[in-house]
Design goal:
- The chain has 280 residues and is of the alpha+beta class.
- 17% of the residues lie in helices and 28% in strands.
- It has 2 domains: 50-129, Type Iii Antifreeze Protein Isoform Hplc 12 (Alpha-Beta Complex), CATH 3.90.1210; 134-274, no CATH class.
- 20% of the residues are buried.
């Protein structure tokens, strides 16, 4: 074999070997290593001075009579304190002091309690704040016998009963007899002028002489007229009747001279005849 042909064969063999190694290298999977740098966040903390402020535990509407369950102490930044806020550190008995007050301006849940939005007991306008819009307050004289033994208290529900004397002319003679009628039902008691305490037998030791009732304007006229006719008594109703929106059974006919039936009716008060009720 000539030297030239031998050189060509050796070169071809070398090229084939090189090509084989190149193909083998390309066929292997390639591993790529990537270095990821995670960003670092630096949080700066700053201590904030806090105190506890008296706030509303629920939404409070105008006329709400507040109890201890309507208040709570809530964390509050000291730098955001406003004049009038009650703090637990400075006024720890605030809940007891404000219980029994009436809401004058509505407040939302978690809103700080401000004295300008409440009417305290004994303040001018306290009774007016208790009244439901459109209603009136009227007072009636009561006694132990006429007020369920003294156990009628503010926010109770009562029936108003009128007792009076009348004289009926029958075919045989004039007959005098007492008459008792329920003239108003399911009335809310706003106030009783009594201090409620109990003796060893569980009875009240001091009974009020006046009950203040929440009524409609026409019902106020009825009660004022009924007090001139006879004696007013209050009959205590169960708590479940507070949600009863049915008829109040107002005997407004008494204002127009109505009353018990009979031939010629004369009403007596304190032994004297009255012309408040006419017969048929």
């Amino acid at each position: 074999m000539s030297p030239m042909r031998l050189i060509i064969l050796v070169g071809a063999a070398a090229a084939a070997i090189a090509a084989a190694f190149l193909v083998r290298g390309l066929a292997k999977p390639q591993t790529i290593t990537e270095t990821v740098v995670q960003p670092q966040t630096v949080v700066e903390t700053q201590e904030v001075s806090e105190t506890h402020v008296l706030v509303a535990k629920r939404d409070l509407v105008v006329g709400d009579l507040l109890s201890p369950d309507d208040f709570k102490w809530s964390p509050w930044p000291e730098k955001n304190l406003v004049s009038g806020y009650r703090t637990e550190e400075d006024d720890p008995k605030a809940i007891d002091e404000l219980s029994g007050s009436v809401v004058k301006i509505a407040m939302y849940e978690d809103e700080p309690i401000l004295p300008q939005k409440l009417v305290m007991k004994g303040e001018t306008g306290f009774m007016a704040a208790l009244l439901t819009p459109g209603m009136r307050a009227i007072s009636v004289e009561i006694s132990t016998e006429s007020a369920s033994g003294g156990f009628i208290l503010p926010d109770d529900r009562v029936d108003v009963i009128l007792t009076y004397d009348m004289q009926v002319q029958t075919s045989e003679a004039m007959v005098e007899r007492p008459v008792t009628e329920t003239i108003l039902q399911n009335v809310r008691v706003l106030a009783i002028d009594q201090v409620f305490s109990q003796d060893e037998n569980g009875s009240p030791t001091q009974i009020g002489n006046t009950a203040t009732l929440e009524v409609k304007p026409s019902e106020a006229e009825l009660i004022a007229h009924a007090q001139r006719l006879g004696t007013i008594s209050l009959s205590l109703r169960p708590w479940s009747d507070a949600l009863d929106t049915g008829s109040r059974g107002a005997r407004t006919d008494l204002l127009n001279g109505g009353g018990a039936t009979g031939n010629g009716v004369t009403v007596f008060r304190n032994g004297q005849p009255s012309t408040g009720i006419g017969g048929s």
